[in-house]
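Exam revision sheet. Question 4 asks you to relate a sequence to its structure. Input first:
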Amino acid sequence: MKRHSLISRLALLFALLSFTVLATVGYALYRGLEAQLILRDDAALIGRVDQIRILLRDVDVLDLIHQKPQLFSNMLGNQEALLVLKFPGQKPLIEVNPGRTAVPEMAPVAANAPLSLADVHHSLQKDGTPFIAISAAAVTSDAPHELQIIAGRLMTERTSMLRAYRDRILLVASAAALLTALLAYWLTRHGLLPLRRLATQTASIDIRNLSIRIDNMHAPRELLPLIGAFNGMLDRLEMSFTQLSQVSADMAHDLRTPIGNMLGQTEVALGQRRDIEYYEKLLGSNFEELQRLSKMTDNMLFLARAEHADHAIERKALDVADELQRIGEYFEGPAEERDIRLVLRGSGMVWADPTLLRRALANLFANAVRYADPGTEIVLTTEQNASGTTMIVENTGHTIEAHHLGRLFDRFYRADASRRGSSDASGLGLSIVRSIMSLHQGTWHAASSNRTTRFTIFFPGKTGI
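Answer key, structure tokens:
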């Protein structure tokens, strides 16, 4: 199916609109002119019959017909007129009929009655030409003292004039439509030039130059929202592509380390025969690396599902004290190994998905235990207000520089790869926290100063969602 351009469609639409408007106006004028001409012709026919009535009242009809037979023809004033004078029941005294039109049978208007437009009879000939006629009685001095007048006229001239007028209307409407189409085509083509410029700029953008933005300096006001939306989309695409490239590089790096370790250790083990104890250590080491790979894969799958947030989460009203006790018991052992004390403060209720809440707190605690200084405290504080519940995990350790804070929740991002435990982490824990908070329509934030690092998450209340 052939698709017409927008320019052609608009041009045709304006042409059709112009033709319709002019044709409608022309039709109205045509009908008005036709009605005026009909009224004029009917009045003229009545006027001539009245003249004949007056003439026959004062003269001898038979003498007048014999002496001046051309008088009645001249009174009609048209070569296509009809005039018949006769006494009732007798042959016509005179019949003027140049066009040989059939004489219609009509009841005459009484001699003492005035003629009106309603007395004129209208009909069509076989060729469609209108014919008007009227019959009237006139008082004469000759017996039987009442003469019948039949007058008519074939409207060939009027029909020709109306046809010419109609053809001229159609010609003018067609010419105006053609001119409108050409003008609309030019104006539309010129008006859509910014769109073609926009399409050209958009087509020039690919993955090699995602940083280019569409210029809106000379764009019309109507295109500014579209250009803004395009530039916003390019911002998101550039950010997503950059993150995807970074994620791919980070994944390759993080997967290469455990795989390289297992390959190297296995290659050494296969170099010569070893004792059972060596193989047991090798299997134990490989098992730890496989656990790390499995955990990284699980985290990546969780993030992939969480970022498609169209799936529902099961929020419930959870007791804060119970959740704090649960997380404290879980991390009590790892904290004691590093001589770290857990301080849990909070009460009330939190509106959240139980599994996701516990995973977010576990990730924050695992991060705090990993990077906190030995002999310090990890403090979890909860705050309640009308809008929801705020949870703050705070630990003492190395201060994170300000330019790292905004990216801590990105995938695989590490503020300092040399920090203790960074090589054991997958770099996905905080990004999982971000995804969980997004599912809850909450917020997340990190701050670090004076060797104190604070992670804050906020769960909206039931009425705030």
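Marking note for examiners. Residues 417-424 have pLDDT under 50 and may be disordered.
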